Amino acid sequence: MGGELGSLVASLLEQEPWVGSLCGIDVDPPRRRLRKTEFHRIEPSHRERIVDVVTTFDPHVLIHLAVWEPDARAGTAHAKQFTNDATTAILGAAAECPSLEGIVVRSGIEIYGRGRHALTRPDETVAPRPTSEFGRMVERIETVAESVAQRIGVAVGALRLAPVLGPHVPSPLGRLLRQPVVPFSILADPPFAVVEDADAARAFVAAARMRLQQPINIVAPGAITGLQAILRGKRIPLPLVGPEWYLARQMSHLGGAPIPEHVMEVLHRGRLADGGRSLDVLGITPTTSTPDVIDRLFRWESVVRITKPHAVAGTHGVA
Amino acid sequence: MAQLIELPKRTAATVESTMTAVTSPLRSLVPDHSVDEWGRDDQLVRLLGPVARLRWNVSVGGAHHLPAKAGALLVTNERRWSFSPLYVSLALSQATGRPVRFVGRPDHAPFGAGLRRVGALLDDPAEIHGALRHGELVVMATSSTNHPRYAGAVDHELVGAAVTARVAVIPVASMSSTFSRAARAEVGPPIRLRTKRRGPLAEIEIAEAAQRHLQRILDELGGVQTGMAAIDFLGEG
């Protein structure tokens, strides 16, 4: 609930008439003013406290959003560890709640993988074959949630989100695209799709309301290639062929925009998914198209760092 | 007393203005919004149209058999190295005003990536099913033959994608010459089985029927160069 997506979901849930009380757990405090929500700031490794809070609250619906995307807020190793800790603690605690009716987990279309002969636009019936660490992380979340749900007999649904972009959303893909010079694969330049955080949040609310029982892809309509995204943002495209990607990744890391494995996949193999079922099942579909999400990404103001003015010798600074 | 703070000049703004100046003349060649949800680049297809017409001057017949909005699997015959799915899809796309995709993309760069931009899909039944379910027109080829007027066998697994997506299977006879630009694409009526099948026999029988229909249309077409041969006037009396 401390992340942008979690805060958005919580603020939307507060407006829902079917929601009585809300309880949230995160390592960071909420980013929005929440009126009804009870918030607990707990580290993902503190399993006993998480179990205590969840079982005491005894929810009807549990929305599990605690997924650390590699190189978004933490490096890959830490992201994996935090995600695993949170999954074990929260879904384990959910199994102890007698009133629980449904679980909704955050997953990603990275779960389908982009290996050789992977479908261009997989739908939910395609078997997961992740080829990146982030894909394997979300696959584990879905597996754990399904096993918990089977054991205690509750509904479990997974929302497989396209790369989430939005104001304040930490995203390695968004950060990379906003660099002044952006590398792209000149030989492939494949298409990819994204989703805006507000659309993803609406999908979570709908999934919780209807006690979703299946995986659903949440993908904004339309697609865009790396070069097209760079041109839309009026950045300098840096065409790369192969071996120099290693150097580009290191340089980008030093520049503050690390390129993790799953973002490399986006730039080399593309990332599309069939999001047609969300309208049939959830009754909603993302409204902001992929090119529009990319445009909004470039419209956010950059951080302007104001340094303290140096006092000139012999003069007095103004306080 | 207030302190006057001068904000540093944004690097991004400088880059943006430079890039706008550099890319504005190239904007029509490299559009920033032309890829659809399957990776087909409509702008690129339009740019390649005149180039393709240098090789194939395709005359299209029977386009009224194609559905206006729904998806359909179009089965076309292929002579070895004729690239008939490519020119058939380009010609039908121009004739109908709808994007027409074709099956047979290798999954490696740069060829696979390039073909995806002109509408190619992987030859995977699941991929074809997904496209047909979303109302796309997809061209698939029979197995290739050495003779331009023989239709090869039709892969029933790919036809199965159309059966499960509940869309029509339509034969498209294609004919081209190795040495000239003349090419034809004749669309036949949708294939209907006399006996409705519920199981996998449906796709096998539709695949066989598609091959028969294609052969019949090819026989009726009578070759790429039709008309009177130079010495035919001798026989007319």
How does this structure look, described?
The complex is a heterodimer of chains A (319) and B (237). Chain A is α/β, with parallel strands linked by helices and 319 residues long. In chain A, 39% of the residues lie in helices and 16% in strands. Chain A has eleven helices and twelve strands. A four-stranded parallel beta sheet of chain A has the order 3-4-5-10, with helices on both faces. A two-stranded parallel sheet of chain A has the order 1-2. Chain A has a two-stranded parallel ribbon with strand order 6-9. In chain A, strand 4, helix 4 and strand 5 form a beta-alpha-beta unit. In chain A, helix 2 runs parallel beside helix 3. The radius of gyration of chain A is 21 Å and the shape is globular. By secondary structure, chain B is α/β, with parallel strands linked by helices. In chain B, 37% of the residues lie in helices and 15% in strands. In chain B, strands 1-7-6-2-5-3-4 form a seven-stranded mixed beta sheet, sandwiched between helices. In chain B, helix 4 links the parallel strand 3 and strand 4. In chain B, helix 5 runs parallel beside helix 6 and helix 6 packs across helix 7. Chain B is elongated. The mean pLDDT of chain B is 87. At the A-B interface, strand 11 and helix 7 of A face helix 1 and helix 5 of B.
**Number of helix segments of chain A?**
11
Order of helices and strands of chain A: HEEHEHEHEEHEEEHEEHEHHHH
Strand order of the largest sheet of chain A: 3-4-5-10
Order of helices and strands of chain B: HHEEHEHEHEHEEH
Q: Taking all residues together, what is the mean pLDDT of chain B?
A: 87
Largest sheet of chain A: 4 strands, parallel
Task: Note the beta-strand portion of chain B.
Answer: 15-25%
Q: Classify the helix fraction of chain A into a percent range.
A: 25-40%
Overall shape of chain A: it is: globular
- What structural category characterises the helix and strand content of chain B? alpha/beta
